[in-house]
Amino acid sequence: MQTCTVLGAGAWGTSLAKLVAENGLDVIAWTNEESVAKDINENHRNDRYLAGFDLPKNLRASMDIGAAIAAADLILFVVPSHATREVARLAAPHVRPGVPIVSCTKGIENDSLEFMDEVLQAELPESVHGDLAFLSGPSFAKELAQRQPTVVVVATRTPEVFDKVCDAVKGPYFRVYASDDIAGVECGGALKNVIAIAAGVADGMGYGYNSRAALITRGLAEIAKIAMARGGSALTVAGLSGMGDLVLTCTGELSRNRTVGFELGKGRKLDEILAGLGHVAEGVKTAKSAYGLAEKLGVDCPIIREVYFALYEGKPAKEALGALMSRELGYEFDRAAIARATLKKEEA
Question: Please, what are the domains in the chain?
Answer without folding.
Answer: 3-180 (3.40.50.720), 183-347 (1.10.1040.10)
